[in-house]
């Protein structure tokens, strides 16, 4: 991959840096059509770079305009790729019933690594969707029993659908997928979209049924200002269980989380900041390491079939920036997007 001035010179063949930038709308991003494998490899690169000190990423700060909403500023510097920028990620859980569109909306700016000038402004909804699912898949590959035949999915919006699609394609042996969402239509949409990827039976479940019958539990719901756990500790069959969360400790009792044999998170710094926001009123458990450390084989993943492992990945800007660079490069190569003046 081109780096430093060589990369900048290549960009300059396509856009006039500091005079214009490339605008990529939602359809442009979809038209670039990167594969699951490409997205997953890039996401892993970002996570490993962060946890091995080869990237610069401050913990994301945010504002919260309405109850249970968030708007997060997520900058990152991928030093190994000469890529830097910032994502502005928003989550408003009631968007669908109020306005008819998804709860998550994101935009992203890429900057020239040598001068700081804006080189791209893009919709980042799809980027957020696929990199979040890639993180879940990578975590599953490292921490779950690989012969699991049942999974649970809490949250059936765009991220839930993407996680089910990626996981079911990677694990064709899955026989049952328990799904749960506060909107019936979201569960129906997930089944309609994802059944093509799997022979598994989809089961609309309540909290107890999902908890008791899932060998791996994924979640991609909104993060309330104050956790309101719905899954009782006694429902979890902890022996060999893997929980992979994209929404903090939202669904689980504190006793369940702190019973885990291993507890990993994507960024220790970010989750320690979230403690000050009140997201973990009973404190974080002892952290065994960052997910990127396990992916880099610096820290261990699953070591036996008996372990109960809890993975808390809330999402990191390094994932967005490394994936966004790939979309940007592909757009320049394919002539996709609109050049706009600065």
Model description:
This protein has 342 residues and is an alpha/beta fold. It folds into 2 domains: 149 residues, ornithine cyclodeaminase, domain 1 (2-Layer Sandwich), CATH 3.30.1780.10; 184 residues, Rossmann fold (3-Layer(aba) Sandwich). It is 36% helix and 22% strand. It contains 12 helices and 15 strands. The strands form 2 sheets. The protein has an 8-stranded parallel sheet, with helices on both faces.
Entry keywords:
alpha/beta, Rossmann fold, 342 residues, eight-stranded parallel sheet, 2 domains, 12 helices, ornithine cyclodeaminase, domain 1
Strand order of the largest sheet: 9-8-7-10-11-14-12-13
- Overall mean pLDDT score? 95
- Rg value: 20 Å
What structural class do the secondary elements suggest?
A: alpha/beta
What is the CATH first-level class name of the largest domain?
Answer: Alpha Beta
Shape: globular
CATH topology call of the largest domain: Rossmann fold
> In CATH, what is the homologous superfamily of the largest domain?
NAD(P)-binding Rossmann-like Domain
DSSP strand content = 15-25%
Give the % helix.
25-40%
Poorly predicted regions are: none
CATH architecture of the largest domain: 3-Layer(aba) Sandwich
């Amino acid at each position: 991959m081109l780096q430093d001035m060589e990369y900048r010179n290549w960009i300059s063949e396509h856009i006039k840096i500091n005079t214009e930038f490339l605008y990529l709308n939602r359809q442009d991003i979809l038209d670039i059509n990167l594969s699951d494998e490409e997205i997953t490899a890039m996401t892993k690169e970002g996570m490993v770079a962060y946890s091995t000190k080869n990237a610069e990423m401050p913990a994301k700060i945010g504002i919260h305009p309405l109850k249970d909403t968030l708007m997060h500023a997520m900058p990152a510097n991928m030093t190994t790729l000469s890529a830097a920028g910032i994502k502005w990620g928003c989550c408003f859980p009631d968007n669908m019933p109020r306005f008819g569109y998804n709860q998550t909306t994101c935009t992203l700016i890429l900057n020239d690594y040598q001068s700081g000038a804006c080189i791209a402004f893009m919709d980042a909804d799809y980027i957020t969707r696929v990199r979040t699912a890639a993180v879940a898949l990578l975590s599953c590959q490292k921490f779950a029993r690989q012969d699991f035949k049942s999974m649970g999915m809490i949250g059936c919006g765009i991220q839930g659908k993407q996680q089910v699609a990626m996981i079911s394609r990677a694990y064709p042996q899955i026989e049952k997928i328990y799904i749960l969402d506060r909107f019936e239509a979201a569960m129906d949409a997930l089944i309609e979209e994802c059944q093509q990827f799997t022979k598994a039976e989809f089961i609309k479940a309540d909290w107890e049924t999902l908890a008791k019958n899932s060998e791996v539990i994924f979640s991609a719901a909104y993060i309330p200002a104050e956790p309101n756990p719905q899954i009782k500790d006694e429902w979890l069959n902890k022996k060999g269980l893997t929980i992979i969360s994209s929404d903090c400790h939202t669904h689980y009792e504190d006793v369940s989380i702190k019973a885990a044999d291993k507890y990993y998170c994507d960024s220790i710094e970010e989750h320690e900041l979230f403690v000050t926001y009140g997201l973990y009123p009973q404190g974080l458990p002892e952290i065994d390491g960052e997910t990127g450390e396990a992916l880099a084989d610096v820290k261990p993943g699953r070591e036996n079939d008996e372990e109960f492992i809890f993975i808390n990945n809330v999402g990191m800007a390094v994932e967005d920036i490394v994936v966004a660079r790939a979309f940007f490069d592909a757009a320049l190569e394919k002539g996709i997007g609109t050049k706009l003046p600065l």
